[in-house]
Structures are given as structure tokens and as C-alpha cells.
Amino acid sequence: MNLVNFKHDTDADGILTLVWDMPGKPMNVLDQSLMNELDAIVDHVIADAAIKGVVLTSGKDAFCAGADLTMMEGAGKEFAAAVKARGQEAAMKEFMAQAGAGSRVFRRIETCGKPWAAAINGVALGGGFEITLACHYRVIADNAKAQVGLPEVKVGLFPGAGGTQRIPRLMATPDALQFLFKGESWKPAKAKQMNLVHEVAPEGEIVARAKAWIKGGGKAVAPWDEKNFKMPSGKIFSPIGMMVWPPANAIYRKETYDNYPAVKAILKCVYEGLQLPIDQALTVETRYFAQIMRSKEAAAMIRSLFLSMGELNKGARRPKSEPKTTLKKIGVIGAGFMGAGIAYVTAMAGAEVVLVDRDQAAADKGKAHSDALISARVAKGRATAEQKEALLARITPTADYGDLKGCDLVVEAVFEDRGVKAETTKKAQAVLGADIVFASNTSTLPITSLATEAQKPENFIGIHFFSPVDKMMLVEIIMGERTGDKALATALDFVRLIKKTPIVVNDTRGFFANRCVGRYVAEGHLMLMEGVPPAMIENVARMAGMPVGPLSLNDEVAIDLSWKIVQATKKDLGEQAVDPAQEKLIKTMVVDHERFGRKNGKGFYDYPQGGKKKLWPGLSTLAGKALDPDTIDVEELKQRFLVVQAVEAARTMAEGVVTDPREADVGSILGFGFAPFTGGAISYIDFMGTKAFVELCDRLTAKYGDRFVPPALLRDMAKTGETFYAKFAPKKAA
Length: 734
Description:
The chain is of the alpha/beta class. It is 51% helix and 11% strand. The strands form 4 sheets. Strands 12-11-10-13-14-15-16-17 form an 8-stranded mixed β-sheet, sandwiched between helices. Strands 1-2-3-4-6-9 form a 6-stranded mixed β-sheet. 46% of the residues are buried.
């Protein structure tokens, strides 16, 4: 066989070993060339009587990362073009054939009459795991990198090459649905426990174990092709089945609010497929897969959560003229909650950290935060005692700025006070000189003004982390008016080192994320003052796709902080910059009732010790009126929550704060949880259509006020139907 993607060898026992090793790619992926070769391999295996069985393994560190999603990104557009060129029926047949290509090849492997065994040496995800499910035997390596999973749902798709049919035929239906709904990845032991693999073995033995199974008489028949096969959870229409499906539907509704078509398709595929023979079930799956591939949700999520995020992580915004920096030693000034978190993720990335605070006790306390975090990982089996010891050894707590000597970058995370930050900058540069790149972790103070205290403002930049640092994946890199390419490149290299996703924004009040999420919280405040029931506000926000309600979110960030921001906004921008209804609400909460949020156990919610939080009963009296919930338009409430954030994102692009729509979309999802199914705040506008979005803004403006007024840029775009992704064509990664 003349193969490009596989190395192959047939041993004396007639076992063909296929080593999957795609040239020029860091990981194996499923694409059309791969499918063509697999099809040809199956033909060869069937035709060659000397071949007794096949072992499929990988020549790379991972087994397979899944399908090449770049092929699927434009599926909807390609289908529309085919309809226009060849008609609906012909286009649909072509699209169905394309959508089912992988499933057909995998079924040929399963039914070719000769045993196939998969030797899984590392990560096997998505279609890469589905191909192993079509093999008759699966051996997985007992190592830290090995895991199996079907994460397609996280980018708006679902397993369309047999996953929704083989998984529920291998394990109990409730477990299968949870696995498919969540897109989880499981380590070898869990995969074996749940019947997804047959054997766990040392990495160096997996191919030999797979061969041994074939030589030992391994059957070339999948369990579901056996005459007497029984479903793990019995038939759909049975007493057991009726205990599964009503709760499954309820869980789907509760978790998705019907916003994710792919999750609904999984539910339908499993429900319908388990009532059919496997071949018909696979056809059902293909039909749903073709439908989901053409959905706007899949297009938006693939673009933002896979392609755009990947490009940003690889340095799409890094200045090409700057040489790559080597960051071995990082200074972190301020050992409070944020600084301690920055120190932890930096040490986790393998860099040395000098953690500076006002005295040794404060610095030691900051290091103790890292000790607590890594100890928790050790307790859960996610890290070893040796790794913990090595990580803590990389963090040097100190009160002496002189210990910063030799640092390649300094990140300041002291109190949000201009004077304190200025003093910190001067002390650090007195030790390190003017050429060190100095970064300020700030969420409120303009970088341009902070940079005036630096010896070289061009080497001063903002790096805004989100709390908690170890969990939040987004980092805003803020460019001051004089920030240079060296500082930007260094900051991006640092963010890449600690495995976070960066967006680059220009200096402005609130930067990008806080501007947008502030509008979300404020909309919840205003709804409350209109008389909308508090529980309805919180529930509808989640129905719209937000991770938590605005009142709950405000409790987390602190209502007294909101009060300080309101006062600062009035001082800087004037009385008209703050809605009086919102100001009245926050003043009542903070000044009159001393309800500061979760931190003092009293906010929009009450936080009883040892009990669940509950909405504060006093909220119902604050507005002085209460609307009948049956008279409230739920869809309009949902629109208000999303539109008020999206129009603010559009303003940041109109003002040049954000210059790349990818960053607005990725930043809005990772930074404040903007409804992921939309693809982000800018994709929400683009997929709705700028004309329709502006019309919606105008309706909401007429009813609720100027906060919904779209910027002039958006009105101009609406006249021609132009999109942000067309107007601001993203720069390609270097």
C-alpha cells in the first residue's frame, strides 16, 4: 500500500500494524485524505487473505486530536452555495454523504470480517476516539497523558461518526448521556471502569497486548452485531427506560435552556438510535449531524472557541518584528489574592518567581496560597508530592526589592491605588533599570497614566488577570498610548507561557471585559427597580445563556465595590454618566443596609452559614412596585441582557479599544461568560445580521433608554449588511 498518513508493517503472524503519523502535523487529525486512506486500507485488509488482523496505533505523543474543524467551519455557507448551484435535493444528498463519510468508513472497519485492535498511546478525542470505538478491542496506555473523550459538544457539534450509538451500547444510558452532554475526557482507569476500553497497560506494551488479543482468537464482531445483544439499560419502552428518559429530558432543559442544538441532537440520536439496529441508528445520527453542521450555533462556536482561540493562543497579535523572549524568572509584586495567584500559575509553568510584599510575613502568606492550591491537586491525584515540592521551590517570597535582580519581567499586583502603584514602579525600576518590561495588573486604572511613573513608558503595559487566576483562562493585555512592541511581545510570551488566552485592548476606562459585564450587572439592577421579580431576573439571565444571574454576580464581585465605581464614574464623567435608578439601588444596599455581597454574608442574596444562599426577601420592597410576572415578556428580558453587552462590545470596536473581532468574541466568552452558543458578543451581532441588530437596538432604546443606542459605525454597517468579521478582517497568526 502507498500510504501518506500511516506507516505499516505486517508481521509473521499476519497482523498488520498501522502507525498513524500524519506528516507536517503536530497531532493526528481526521480529514478527507485520512478517510480516503482508511477506506483503501479496509479494502486491502479484506482482499489480502494473509492479513489476520489489524492493530491501529499512533506514531505521535497523542493518538488523535479529533477532526479537522477547519473543514466544518464553513459547512453552512458551502451548503447554501450548493443549493444555489445544484438545487436543494442534490445539495442535501451531497451534504449527507459528506457528513456521513467518517461513520461509513468506521462501520466498514467494524464489519470487515477481520479483528481490529486500537493501541491508544495518548489523547484520543472526538473522531479519534470514535475510530477506536469501531475497533473490536481497545488497549490504552497507563500514563498521565492518555485520555479518551468526545468533546465536540463544546464547539457546538456532537459525535457524528458513531459516538452517539456505540457509547450507549457500551454503558448504562444515564452515564452515556452525561458523558456525551458534558464532552468530558476520562483517564485510563475511569475509561476501563465505564467499559470504554478493554485493557489498561504500560505504554511500551500496548501494541504487544493488542496483537496478543488478535492472536488469542479476538472476534471480529462488535457486541451490538451479536445476535443476542442486549442494551445495558434495556429497551427504551420498558419500566427501566421510563425511569431514564423523563429525567434525561429534564436535565437537558435545566442545563441548556434549549440554547444548544447539538445537545438536543444527542438526546434525539440516543433515544431514536437505541430503538433501531446499529446501521439504521448510524443513519439517524448522520441525519442529525448534517443538520447540526449547518447550524449557526456550530459555525459560531467553532469559529470562536476553536479557530479564533487557537490563533490567539498561538500569538496572532504578537508583533512579528520582535524576537521571542526567554522568560525564566518573573517578579510578582504584591502577594495578596491576585498576586499570589499570578505567582502560582507562573511557577506551575516552570518559571522562577520572586514574590515581593511589604514584609516577609505578607510574602510568606502569598506563597502559602500556592501551597494550598498544589496540595489540593495532590490530594485529588492530579499532581505528585515531588511536583508540589518543585513548584514551591520555584517561589521565593521576600520583602526585599533587591531580590528582583535578574528578572525578565515584573508583574505588579498591588492595591488599586495610583500612589501605591507609582511607588512600586519606582522601587522595582531602581533595581532593574529602565529596560525591564513592567506590567501592571489593574482592572480600573488607565495604563497610560500609570506609565508616566515609568522610566520608559514604552516598556510599561497592563496585564489584567481575572479572579481566581488559577481558574480563569482570559488575560487582557492593555496597551497604553506609548506602549511599544517589545512590551507587547513580552506580555504575550508570558501569557502563552502560563497557558492563558490573551486579548489585546487599547487603554480605556474598564478596558473591554469590565465595560461589557458592567452593563450586564447594571441591566439586572434596572430590571429590579422596574419591579421585575428578583428570581425572574436571575433565571431569565441564565435562560439567555449567561453562567450566573447579574445579582449573584454582583454579590461575588462586591456591591460596595460597585458603589465606589459609581462614585468614581460620577466624579470623572459627570452626573449623567450614572443611571439614577441604579445609583439609588446600590446606595440603599450598601449605605442603608450594609449589604456588601458574599464577603459579609449579605447582598442581593443571604448567605447563611452551612446553608444555601437565598435571595434577600427585602429586595421586593426596594423598587416600590412589583410587576406581575405573567405580563412580562421573557424573550425581551433575554434580549436586553445580551444586547446591552453586545452593543457595548460594538462600541469598543467603534472606539478602537478592541481592533480584532476574534478578541471581542473570545474575551466575552472567557472573561464574563457571554452566551457561548452565540460565539461571543460580536458574533451575536454578525449572525443576527447588523441590520436586524440595529433595529432591535432601536426598539429597546425607545422603550428603555439610551444605553441601547448603537454606535454610528454599526448603523453604517447595517445599511449594507456588513459584518464585523468582514470589516475588521482578523490578522493571521505569524
